[in-house]
Amino acid sequence: MQFLSDILILIHFFNQIECQSKIWQKLNLPHEHIPYFFNSNPGLRKKCLKEEFCPHKEHAQQNATKCWGYEKNCKMSNRLFLPECPGSSNGWVNDKQEQIELFWKQGDFGYIKERLGEMKTYCQPENPGDSKLECVDHLRMCRAKNIFFDFADLNSKYSNDRYREDIFKQGQVGGRCKLDSDLLRKNGDHKSPLQSWYSELQLFQEFETKPIDDKKCDIVVNEPTFLIKLDAGVNMYHHFCDFINLYVTQHANNSFLQNVNIVFWDTSGSDYWSYFSDMWKVFSNKKPIHIRVYDKKKVCFRDAVFSFLARMRFGLFYNMPLIYGCHGSGLFRSFSEHVLHRFKISQEGPLEDKIRITFLARGTQFRNILNQDQIVKEIRKKLGKKIELKLVTYDIHVPFVDQIKTTHNSDIFMSMHGSGLTHLLFLPDWATVFEIHNCEDKDCYADLARLRGIKYFTWENESKVYPQDDGKHPQLGTPHKKFTNYSFDTKEFIRIVNKMIEYVKNHPKYREKLGKKYPKMTEQKSEL
């Protein structure tokens, strides 16, 4: 009998370990982020400290003052990451401290702090179990409890319009709470498909009874749900505006668990498809839902979040003003680390004796490099002992996760102006990006590189680049340098590549990662 008793004790012991392990596995955050998460969730921190088998005990024991930056009482010295502003602000601000703070508010965790400071309750619950609606200014992001939608007039299969604003009538949106209709109306000034949720919530109505308790709902969604309106899924730059803003929304709601629903608010009957659809796995372990599954249904969400949107005025990162002279956003760096962690992509370098170059070729009608083969041949001939060069094409035949793995394990990433340069988000900290020619769109990827904290290069001598023709928009006929192909002077190309190699070799994080002692670093400008 004693033997059986011991077996039962062991079974209980291992079941307890397995149960606790599953709890902490759901956290699924990069190790570097866990102390910050614990300090935003002191209850979980205490739970970890008490449990014998919590794998994050070391992080829970760390200094409790570490903060992302948007929390109340978070001191600047305790923020996750501070931007650097070695360059001139070009007259935007009066002093260096103001320059740093403005950059932090525009493109870092300060953006979240600013938005959280705007949060107001638009519909106030009066009793337990009531509905609630709270939003930031202009309804750019909202949270709702026990909210009711009647999709009787969705009719998505008869529409090609992804952003219809007429799917609700009076009485088809609302909940049991006290509505501040004046506040709602005043915040409708950004009404636009990808800038605000005002169109979807403008007819929000206070009900006399609780919609869920009153059996008004054909479907009750009990799981936490993120609602999102999508930008162009075929374009990496624009689609990553969706993903960045969803990550921002997670921070604003202190919610990083993956047992959530993601609902595409798309009023058309079109199916979603994207090269980058694997990215949804970063945010949820469930397949995204199209709202057409709710057509003709009355649906209640117990816990819904209306995500920040891709094209908001002064949003992230499209339409974003960004002060000059600064680089290094903790928010963008954390996004990169978050994605790499959840895709289980590791850094396999740097190599001891070679710089890894990834040359992304284009397979489109415009902005191809006409003498690309010659350039690649000359780089390998002149720099072969210094470099390991991969010429790649990121298309449908290369799984997106494999693309990110290749990018992350690059020291230099180069391509012509185009959305593939958005991959720079996943470069290691010491890397450089070479936008070979910016085609008169000089700030787009330069700013994205500044946000990620990556050194940016582009073509310097216009007399040594040779466009195929003047370039004309294929539909409008207007001239533009984006709509042609190019040849480049090979000697000038190699000169720039050599500059990038020297920058990488002298980068402190490259040297630290390589783990070798070097002679004194050659002098280089610190501004990215």
Q: What is the CA-atom radius of gyration, in angstroms?
A: 26 Å
Percentage of residues in strands: 5-15%
| Tally of individual helices | 16
SSE class: alpha/beta
Give the % helix: 25-40%
Biggest sheet, in brief?
11 strands, mixed
Shape designation:
globular
Low-confidence blocks of residues: 2-19, 517-528
Q: What is the averaged pLDDT score?
A: 91
State the total count of DSSP E strands. 18
| Amino-to-carboxy terminus distance | 72 Å
Catalytic activity: L-seryl-[protein] + UDP-N-acetyl-alpha-D-glucosamine = 3-O-(N-acetyl-beta-D-glucosaminyl)-L-seryl-[protein] + UDP + H(+); L-threonyl-[protein] + UDP-N-acetyl-alpha-D-glucosamine = 3-O-(N-acetyl-beta-D-glucosaminyl)-L-threonyl-[protein] + UDP + H(+)
GO cellular component, one term: endoplasmic reticulum lumen
EC number: 2.4.1.255
Protein name: EGF domain-specific O-linked N-acetylglucosamine transferase
